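Q: what does this look like with guanosine-5'-diphosphate bound?
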Amino acid sequence: MQGRADYDERTHRSRGRSDGLRLYALFSSLFFAHAMRYTTQFLLSALAAAQFPAPDAPEIAFLGRSNVGKSSLLNTLVGEKTAKVSQTPGRTRAINFFALLDESKRQKLVFADLPGYGYAKISKSISAGWPEFIEPYLAIRSALKLCVCLVDSNVPAQESDRQLTDWLRAAGRELVVVATKIDRLSGNQRTRNLLALRQGLELEEILPVSAKTGYGVKELWARIDAVGS
Ligand code: GDP
């Protein structure tokens, strides 16, 4: 019996490990497929409209309240460099632009990492706490093709998120709302929170993601790639 129990435990353990490895391999292959397709190049940090880069490639803006998990998600999407640059002191109030280059070093996409919002009281504009040039960027930037709005799946819809999504819709911007940190929620909570967020922000769809496990990253890439093609 002893031998049998050991045997079962070993097989169980080794099966667990191989499932884990397979999942890891799947996630890495998805991540590296994109990492191989694109290399990321930091372009510049803009503190005024005059500093925006030439609008040469379709741009995707990443927006969200501070602490929503924006750096972590960018890190998962395109690598550590992006998140690190954006968190450098002095650059947290800027729009940080990154080019995604293909194998022939051509710019295929540009990611615009916008400063976190939400601590300052919202007033007439989207956020009184945001530097003045952010709103015009969102309103008139011709290269901007998609706004990825991040909300925390663990937190109910906030007034600032609602104002931002309403404002972007009114400005005619295409947007996708992404619910971050989904790994922290169990199945039932997940369903409940996602529904509440969809209702609170009046959305037809919301994309759950986890920077930690890679959940939903492939779907988000599909949305981003659709803009670039
Ligand atoms: P930012 O201020 O929006 O750039 O947020 P960060 O990326 O710095 O993340 C804020 C906190 O949330 C950090 O403690 C992260 O470790 C945590 N976090 C971010 N993404 C995830 C995720 O997908 N899952 C979990 N469990 N934690 C996350």
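The helical segments are 2-37, 70-78, 80-87, 134-140, 159-170, 187-200, 217-228. Residues 64, 66-72, 116, 180-181, 183-184, 210-212 surround guanosine-5'-diphosphate (CB under 6 Å).
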